[in-house]
Amino acid sequence: MGDPVCSGVSRRAVLGGAGALAVVVTATGCGAGQAAKTDTSPFSVPVGDVPVGGGKVFAERGTVVTQPNAGEFHAFSAKCTHAGCTVKGIVKGQILCPCHGSSFNAADGAVISGPAEKPLAARTVTVAGAELQIS
Ligand code: FES
After folding, report:
1. Does ligand 1 come within 6 angstroms of the Cβ of 81?
2. Per the CB 3.0–4.6 Å rule, which of 50, 66, 124, 126 could disulfide with 106?
3. pLDDT in tens, 73-100
4. 47 CA to middle of ligand 1, Å?
Protein backbone atom coordinates (compact mmCIF):
# COMPACT_ATOMS: atom_id res chain seq x y z
CA MET A 1 0.00 0.00 0.00
CA GLY A 2 1.45 3.34 -0.97
CA ASP A 3 0.72 6.88 -0.16
CA PRO A 4 -2.96 7.59 -0.86
CA VAL A 5 -2.06 10.70 -2.82
CA CYS A 6 0.74 9.12 -4.83
CA SER A 7 -0.93 5.77 -5.46
CA GLY A 8 -4.44 7.00 -6.01
CA VAL A 9 -6.32 8.19 -9.01
CA SER A 10 -6.12 11.92 -9.52
CA ARG A 11 -8.43 12.64 -12.41
CA ARG A 12 -11.43 11.07 -13.94
CA ALA A 13 -13.19 12.18 -17.03
CA VAL A 14 -16.37 10.77 -18.40
CA LEU A 15 -16.80 11.01 -22.12
CA GLY A 16 -20.11 10.29 -23.75
CA GLY A 17 -21.08 10.16 -27.35
CA ALA A 18 -23.68 8.44 -29.53
CA GLY A 19 -24.99 6.58 -26.53
CA ALA A 20 -21.59 5.20 -25.63
CA LEU A 21 -19.89 5.96 -22.35
CA ALA A 22 -16.16 5.90 -21.86
CA VAL A 23 -14.30 6.47 -18.63
CA VAL A 24 -10.75 7.76 -18.71
CA VAL A 25 -8.67 7.46 -15.60
CA THR A 26 -5.26 9.00 -15.21
CA ALA A 27 -2.90 8.26 -12.36
CA THR A 28 -0.87 11.01 -10.73
CA GLY A 29 2.77 11.69 -11.50
CA CYS A 30 3.87 9.72 -8.43
CA GLY A 31 5.32 6.43 -9.56
CA ALA A 32 6.40 3.45 -7.53
CA GLY A 33 9.51 4.08 -5.52
CA GLN A 34 9.06 7.82 -5.13
CA ALA A 35 8.03 7.71 -1.50
CA ALA A 36 10.83 9.20 0.56
CA LYS A 37 13.11 7.10 2.70
CA THR A 38 12.94 7.85 6.37
CA ASP A 39 16.48 6.81 7.31
CA THR A 40 17.82 9.68 9.39
CA SER A 41 21.01 8.01 10.58
CA PRO A 42 24.20 10.09 10.29
CA PHE A 43 26.23 9.82 7.10
CA SER A 44 28.96 11.68 5.26
CA VAL A 45 29.59 12.65 1.67
CA PRO A 46 32.47 14.34 -0.12
CA VAL A 47 32.15 18.14 -0.19
CA GLY A 48 32.62 17.98 -3.96
CA ASP A 49 29.39 16.02 -4.36
CA VAL A 50 27.33 19.13 -3.55
CA PRO A 51 27.65 21.79 -6.25
CA VAL A 52 27.87 25.50 -5.43
CA GLY A 53 24.57 27.22 -6.22
CA GLY A 54 22.74 23.91 -6.19
CA GLY A 55 22.68 20.73 -4.22
CA LYS A 56 22.17 17.01 -4.38
CA VAL A 57 19.43 14.65 -3.30
CA PHE A 58 20.70 11.58 -1.45
CA ALA A 59 17.49 9.64 -1.88
CA GLU A 60 18.84 6.48 -0.25
CA ARG A 61 19.49 8.60 2.86
CA GLY A 62 16.26 10.56 2.66
CA THR A 63 18.24 13.78 2.61
CA VAL A 64 18.89 16.72 0.34
CA VAL A 65 22.09 18.75 0.84
CA THR A 66 22.43 22.22 -0.65
CA GLN A 67 25.20 24.78 -1.09
CA PRO A 68 23.49 28.08 -2.02
CA ASN A 69 26.80 29.96 -1.75
CA ALA A 70 30.38 28.67 -1.67
CA GLY A 71 31.03 27.05 1.69
CA GLU A 72 27.42 27.48 2.94
CA PHE A 73 25.86 24.05 3.39
CA HIS A 74 22.36 23.06 4.46
CA ALA A 75 20.68 19.69 4.81
CA PHE A 76 17.01 18.83 4.90
CA SER A 77 14.79 15.80 4.87
CA ALA A 78 14.10 14.84 1.26
CA LYS A 79 10.54 13.92 2.21
CA CYS A 80 8.14 16.47 0.80
CA THR A 81 5.85 17.80 3.52
CA HIS A 82 2.84 17.63 1.22
CA ALA A 83 2.40 13.89 0.72
CA GLY A 84 5.79 12.35 1.30
CA CYS A 85 7.36 12.03 -2.13
CA THR A 86 11.11 12.37 -2.42
CA VAL A 87 12.19 15.77 -3.69
CA LYS A 88 14.02 15.43 -6.96
CA GLY A 89 16.36 18.26 -7.69
CA ILE A 90 17.61 21.76 -6.96
CA VAL A 91 17.13 24.45 -9.60
CA LYS A 92 17.74 28.18 -9.19
CA GLY A 93 17.77 28.01 -5.40
CA GLN A 94 14.66 25.86 -5.18
CA ILE A 95 14.30 22.26 -4.08
CA LEU A 96 11.62 20.73 -6.30
CA CYS A 97 9.10 17.99 -5.62
CA PRO A 98 8.08 16.12 -8.79
CA CYS A 99 4.76 14.81 -7.49
CA HIS A 100 2.58 17.91 -7.26
CA GLY A 101 4.99 20.77 -7.89
CA SER A 102 5.86 22.06 -4.45
CA SER A 103 9.13 23.95 -4.19
CA PHE A 104 11.26 24.83 -1.18
CA ASN A 105 13.98 27.38 -0.52
CA ALA A 106 17.39 25.69 -0.81
CA ALA A 107 18.81 27.90 1.95
CA ASP A 108 16.23 27.30 4.67
CA GLY A 109 13.75 24.70 3.44
CA ALA A 110 10.82 27.13 3.54
CA VAL A 111 7.92 26.58 1.17
CA ILE A 112 8.12 28.74 -1.94
CA SER A 113 5.11 27.23 -3.66
CA GLY A 114 2.63 24.57 -2.60
CA PRO A 115 0.60 22.51 -2.23
CA ALA A 116 3.07 21.82 0.61
CA GLU A 117 2.40 24.12 3.56
CA LYS A 118 5.27 23.21 5.89
CA PRO A 119 9.03 23.59 5.36
CA LEU A 120 11.35 20.64 4.82
CA ALA A 121 12.70 19.33 8.11
CA ALA A 122 16.23 20.59 8.69
CA ARG A 123 19.13 18.27 9.38
CA THR A 124 22.55 19.25 10.72
CA VAL A 125 25.46 19.45 8.30
CA THR A 126 29.05 19.96 9.43
CA VAL A 127 32.13 20.43 7.28
CA ALA A 128 34.95 18.11 8.36
CA GLY A 129 37.86 18.57 6.00
CA ALA A 130 36.79 17.25 2.60
CA GLU A 131 33.66 15.63 4.01
CA LEU A 132 30.21 16.83 4.94
CA GLN A 133 28.79 15.09 7.98
CA ILE A 134 25.01 15.02 8.05
CA SER A 135 23.22 14.13 11.26
S1 FES B 1 4.25 15.18 -2.41
FE2 FES B 1 2.83 16.60 -3.27
S3 FES B 1 4.09 18.30 -3.82
FE4 FES B 1 5.46 16.90 -2.92
Report:
1. no
2. 66
3. 999 999 999 999 999 999 999 999 999 9
4. 28
